[in-house]
Amino acid sequence: MNQWGLTCSRCSARLPFRYQNMKCDCGGTLLVDYDLELVAKTLTKASLHERYPSMWRYQELLPVHDPANIISLGEGWTPLLRMPKWESKLSLRRLWVKREEQNPTGSFKSRGFSVAVSLLREAGATKAAVPSNGNAAGALAAYAGRAGIEAFVFIPMDCPSLIVDECPLYGAKTILVDGFIHDAAAIIESGRGEQGWVNVGTLKEPGRVEGKKTMGFELAEQLGWTFPDVIIYPTGGGSGIIGMWKAYLELKELGLIDCEMPKFVCVQEEGCQPIVDGVHQSSQPTRAGEDDSLLLAASSTIPNPTGMRVPNPPDLPLLLAIVEQSGGTALAVSKVQIAEAMRCLGTEGISSSPEGAATWAAMLQLCTDGWLKPSDSVVLFNTSHAMKYAKLGTSAAIPIIRTYDDFVMYRSL
Amino acid sequence: MNQWGLTCSRCSARLPFRYQNMKCDCGGTLLVDYDLELVAKTLTKASLHERYPSMWRYQELLPVHDPANIISLGEGWTPLLRMPKWESKLSLRRLWVKREEQNPTGSFKSRGFSVAVSLLREAGATKAAVPSNGNAAGALAAYAGRAGIEAFVFIPMDCPSLIVDECPLYGAKTILVDGFIHDAAAIIESGRGEQGWVNVGTLKEPGRVEGKKTMGFELAEQLGWTFPDVIIYPTGGGSGIIGMWKAYLELKELGLIDCEMPKFVCVQEEGCQPIVDGVHQSSQPTRAGEDDSLLLAASSTIPNPTGMRVPNPPDLPLLLAIVEQSGGTALAVSKVQIAEAMRCLGTEGISSSPEGAATWAAMLQLCTDGWLKPSDSVVLFNTSHAMKYAKLGTSAAIPIIRTYDDFVMYRSL
């Protein structure tokens, strides 16, 4: 059996593995570390070749002891779609979209919660709670349902109602919060002791980062054990960025890959952009300690309630360090850019969430700015379906006909 | 290069391959036949083991000549989820759900349209039209968008508005029809010549059945080159049933599998059940020739606008023959049974369409009736996401809170 512990990403302190409290005394985030020499004995390119296409093919690098505890709904090994038309149009060497909306809960959040809920089962937990702008809530609800664990999800009240509605469908206790995601998080922290909830919020437990890590493994394996030059990722709490960065360090240390790390580009929406501000004002102190509400109030634009709207990421310094070390950047895109990008991806056959569309908008911006070079290979992440964010009633403008003559008449108008 | 032609499923006449008009002079449906001796040279268990997990791994059995014409968005190789809790609860040897909602357009329709649109490209077509209760429209829209082909989709006006809204997102010309799917089909037939549309309706062209066939291949391969005892499938036009039945004949003839054919069970919703009526009244003449409107008017229940609501399947005798030859059956389930099944699948972490839920309801019914035996292995198909059919406003009943004290108060009410 594989062994693992925890290492602080800030002070490098090593601690025994635990299921909760990922905060080191120094304030840094504790991440799972593995005995990679042991892992290397069984996790090889040849052994992977024989395994089933699921994120659990990387089982030695996921911290579940007993395979019987794995809660799987069919997550991972999502398609990586090449965009050849746009490669020539934009003069990029390679452009791909990783279709994370094809996960079981319709979003990339399936990965993190498959691991997190497996760990809940391994730890014997019976109740879990999460603050979420929507997709994490749905994922906890689904995986907890499958595991027979009671789920409590706390969602800002302006989040898309389809995403909210999914949660009771999966059997979760669903509560709307008159506030932002950190207000939802505060409610869970207040009630945790009394209610017996395990808080599975971002960086509160070890599973979600480890699950997200598999996006990085898959990308490397799907690209023939290479890294792309640039990964453009919609960033809220940042567990995906932390996970993929960790994945690449592990792959390098395992000797499965030997090339430059990809540049990580974080995308946010204008009006809630702590990572963007942090990257571009790195001489100033980071905003991690400021009052949350100020971060939003400072902006004149009210950002959409998407997964990117996280005013106070739990470990902003770690995110800034990853972006900087990788040679990446961060940028904010507007509502208008996002809406245009959704339409553009739509006509390419891709149903994209605003978050996924934001990566497309960012990619266009970085081409215009010259930050992306013709020699670059670029991967975008489409994290969820467009329809989850749909507003009903837009079809009111669609014509209604009874006969072909009606069609001809309508077309001639 | 592989060669293929067409064979009539009724009179066995053989014709050269063509891209349109799948009706034989005898009234039967023309299906693609392959030179299986040639196919067997390259399509082997060993060669499949080396191939990418996508439905295009079965390329020798899909009628596209030039791989450059393949329009792929990442379809196929969907997860097959085992339901161990329910196996013991219901005394079934094995129970699986094939998660077709994880396809690129959020439904099983991706498969058929990946092949159909590839054939449009191979044939040089520039405009295509489809009558659809929704998911086929979205799939044509997406694949045609990717291929640069103009799509016209005709959808009954009572279909779920999210499904309708997807189509313009993908860039399709979207038209609502004041009528049923056969009224939409009639409009396309009327305008086909004038507008230059290729009609890609069910059994109008060879690609959709061939694409759906890959569900059968995958099932066999994912089950270690065996068949399940029973396949329960939500049936409207029936191209999925025809496709899987064809897949199994091909696998047997290729020598890739050597066991009994699975029993095919068609599920419909009460109120629109031509296949169910046909199976249970097989001594009477089939209803294929009757006036369409009578088929619905005869019932006191108005069925939901789902993919199962096809009053007049294009080749009912073929469907009835498959069900009968396989030793299967057909049954209709009620709106109430479907709604209960959606909730039940939800608490198992599966977001199911009404059509997918109908297979669960049918499975429960067949257990109760004793038609399913404890020795049976059973596969259900979840064809699409629950959310595509969602009605907004249901979240109105979800409580809104500001603090943990609000939560405690709300729980104590």
TrEMBL record, chains A, B:
E.C. no: 4.2.3.1
UniProt keyword annotations, A-Z: Lyase, Pyridoxal phosphate
Record GO biological process: isoleucine biosynthetic process; L-serine catabolic process; L-threonine catabolic process
GO terms assigned for molecular function: L-serine ammonia-lyase activity; threonine deaminase activity; threonine synthase activity
Domain Tryptophan synthase beta chain-like PALP: 71-383
Domain of life: Bacteria
Cofactor entry: pyridoxal 5'-phosphate
Stored Pfam families: PALP
Main enzyme class: lyase
Name of protein: Threonine synthase
Species for this entry: Paenibacillus roseopurpureus
Source species taxonomy: Bacteria, Bacillati, Bacillota, Bacilli, Bacillales
